[in-house]
TrEMBL record:
GO terms for biological process: phosphatidic acid biosynthetic process; triglyceride catabolic process. The keyword Transmembrane does not apply. One of its GO terms (molecular function) is triacylglycerol lipase activity. InterPro entries: NAD(P)-bd_dom_sf, SDR_fam. This is Uncharacterized protein. Keywords: Oxidoreductase. The keyword Acetylation does not apply. Belongs to the short-chain dehydrogenases/reductases (SDR) family. The lineage of its organism: Eukaryota, Fungi, Dikarya, Ascomycota, Pezizomycotina.
Amino acid sequence: MTNSPKSCLITGCSEGGAGAALAEAFAKKEYHVFATARSPSKVPRSLHEASNVTVLALDVASSESIANAAEEVREKAAGKLHVLINNAGMGLSAPGLDTPMSDARKLFDINFFGVLEMIQVFGPLLVEAKGFIVNNSSVGGHLPLPFLSVYQATKAAIIQASEVWRLELEPLGVRVLTLLTGGIATHFVDNQPVPALPPNSYYLGVKDVIDAKPDNIRFAVSPEAFANDVLRHVEKGTTGKLWIGGGAGLLRPLLWFSPQSLIDYLARGMKPFAEKLAAAHEKSA
């Protein structure tokens, strides 16, 4: 009798993203991969055609969708899930004063509450397998970049909660790895929504800065390199916080050992708006 392959479910596997690269990497290691996306048609054809990959529809903001996916995994993976990678997420760029509350709540539903519900629903399968959870957060959870307050709040929440879940799940035999991810060469930033500023916004004079995409491509790693690194750490059994991806290794000591004034200076430099905003506000006063 041959042993059944290990199973791995990954959220957010649309083509060109980190999730699809993770699915490819785990499939090559002969896991039975459940590659999920809100729209399965966006999952790469190579994953649809792989014999050890099952493509599923999964919207992490929908309790019904999560429950349906869990039932299918339970049936096809003999009641066990060895690896859960919570990768799905979205961004949002807007000043805190102008962020629509509906957008802020939606972002928390996807980036935080979706992860919590995934862990709750798939928890019994993970406990049965003595499995492994990977939560993909961001270095942004520790870096105060202007106009990303809500997005970075969701990532800070995941970092803290994931570390607590690690302690809670360890006695049940489930390990938890928290990724503090830096730059990856995907279209994530290009696809993030930028809400229109209201006509009375204080920030109309710096709209070009808000809309500008960060110039961090020179630090970014390929999705494939990122995925292979994650796979290596899962296979090795790494738990706790892992700084990974482009620029993460540089940011870690910087954020730990630098005074807040230096961190603020660097953050403002990534979104240089302060002088322009002050001038515009003074002119209108």
